[in-house]
Amino acid sequence: MNVEFIQALDDIEKDKGISKEVLIDAIETALVSAYKKDFGSKDNVRIDISTDAGEVKVYSRKEVVEEVENENTQISLKEADKIDGKYKIGDIVEIEVTPGNFGRIAAQTAKQVVMQRIREAERDVIFDQFKEKEDELITGTIQRFHNDNILIDMGKTEALLPPSEQIAGEKYEIGKRIKLYVVEVSSTSKGPRILVSRTHPGLLKRLFEIEVPEIFQGLVEIKAVAREAGQRSKMAVASKDKQVDPVGACVGPKGMRVQAVVEQLNREKIDIVKWDESPEVFVANALNPAEVIDVKINKSDKIAEVVVPDFQLSLAIGKEGQNARLAAKLTGWKVDIKKESEIVKSPAKTKEIEKSAQELEKSLDEFEESSEMENEDLESKQEELEVQAEETEETKPEKELE
């Protein structure tokens, strides 16, 4: 190595942010391995690199002992005295053993180490950059296909879009720019592994955050998202300002905002519903566009029993149960949908009606009995009054004579 190489390390430190001391330590470690490999040495050696002149020297380190058992790591006190009389038992003696052609080996090794460290530093920078973008939206260009995987060009690195994260039926063409949701960023020996998705519910959420200013400003909050990618999604929103309609804000004038998101998701249908603290109201809203008559909540079993008009049953359930399934995902409640006529004709309802009729009939009987008793009491009192009247008439002439 030479002075120019040392100066190059200074430039690398400035441009790449890799410490010069760290690079020199790494070069010295690599040179120890290179020396032992190329010269078959088993000695305990130390490499010294002069940062001024760029010179590289190899020193064999040996411990001073009374009796040598291992010539590779030990030296006798007598031999140590020949080098310098100051050494004592237990001291370390360093003897220069630099080979004549070691400069060439040192230069090649140093270059390899520096290049490796630069690559590692760049990987670390990319990893840190994309690690911050986990759960965020990014835009990339479709670069190539590998088996069923799609590799996305992100500039300095590639992102992986596996089959499980691709929208079924969506066309992916090389050179096409698409928006993606960053699911996970992990570090590997070959660099950062960036896993992206087109099916994640978070993608829908982030797209609405871009299209709807009220969400960005914090006036409207996305409470929950349920998605069957490429087919249909449901999103529950709430407003922090009573004057702002959360659903209307997300739909936008003439549906422009929601339509912009639909275009980004391969024409996926999106239902936007109003979130509510009441589970009964929220479940009813989640089944939109179906009309709901009644909702009863079973908290212990986490079941919402929903009653809909007969003609709305198929709409509430949806094609292959999709509407009900998405409503369940959105609300977190298991949704049990029944039509109105089933509730009326059900055995439980019939028993309830019969029980009510029996109670009503019993009440009427009690009322009639009470009325009859009151009538008998009235008749008895009337008879007593008539008797008293007759007695009064009979005694009246006598009183007049007196």
Automatic annotation (TrEMBL):
Cited Pfam families: KH_NusA_1st (PF13184), KH_NusA_2nd (PF26594), NusA_N (PF08529), S1 (PF00575)
Cross-referenced Gene3D superfamilies: 3.30.300.20, Nucleic acid-binding proteins, NusA, N-terminal domain
Protein's GO biological process: DNA-templated transcription termination; transcription antitermination
Ranges of residues in domain S1 motif: 135-199
InterPro entries to which the protein is assigned, alphabetical: KH_dom, KH_dom-like_a/b, KH_NusA_2nd, KH_sf_prok-type, NA-bd_OB-fold, NusA_N_sf, S1_domain, TF_NusA
GO cellular component, one term: cytosol
Gene Ontology molecular function, alphabetical: DNA-binding transcription factor activity; RNA binding
Compositional bias of kind Acidic residues: 366-377
The entry's keywords: Cytoplasm, RNA-binding, Transcription, Transcription antitermination, Transcription regulation, Transcription termination
Cited SUPFAM superfamilies: Nucleic acid-binding proteins, Prokaryotic type KH domain (KH-domain type II), Transcription factor NusA, N-terminal domain
Broad class of the protein's primary localization: cytoplasm
Annotated spans, Disordered: 346-402
SMART domains assigned: KH (SM00322), S1 (SM00316)
Compositionally biased tracts (Basic and acidic residues): 346-365
Cellular localization per UniProt: Cytoplasm
Function: Participates in both transcription termination and antitermination.
Record family assignment: Belongs to the NusA family.
Complex formation: Monomer. Binds directly to the core enzyme of the DNA-dependent RNA polymerase and to nascent RNA.
Protein name: Transcription termination/antitermination protein NusA
Protein's organism: Halanaerobium hydrogeniformans
Gene that this polypeptide is encoded by: nusA
